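Record 1 of the preview.
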Amino acid sequence: MRLTEHPVLRFERGREVTIYFKGQPIRAYEGETIATALHAAGIRVLNYSANEKRPRGLFCAIGKCSSCLMVVNGIPNVRTCITLVEDGMRIEPQHGKARLPGEAKPPEFKEAKVVRADIVIIGGGPAGLMAAIHAADAGASVVLLDENPMLGGQLVKQTHKFFGKRE
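->
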């Protein structure tokens, strides 16, 4: 099951792509995370605990816990709740502690970009957003950095409590 509307936020569904979970094709959409696509397909178990081998599913959905760690394209410990789908991805549940495959290569990084600002704010949650707004209002040039693809932090999951419904 996928959301088609949100009471406050607006979103556009991306292009349909196919990912593979344990070899089986799963329909996904560009712009959604791996965990979201798996959840929409009815897949609730993402990995198994290291000691007791208990099943684990989606928990924090912001990349801060280990419940969504999976093997993606042969690379273990991928945080699937914040990793966006790509056409053709191969996903497997992770069983306990991960081991890097012998042929694993480090990821390729993009060239660094030099950006100048009066103030750099790290963290795009509610406090970081307010700090950026106030600094900009005071005339400072501001760079706001966040590790997630969307600003708002936990606020994104709680919009209805703060803003009511979109009407």
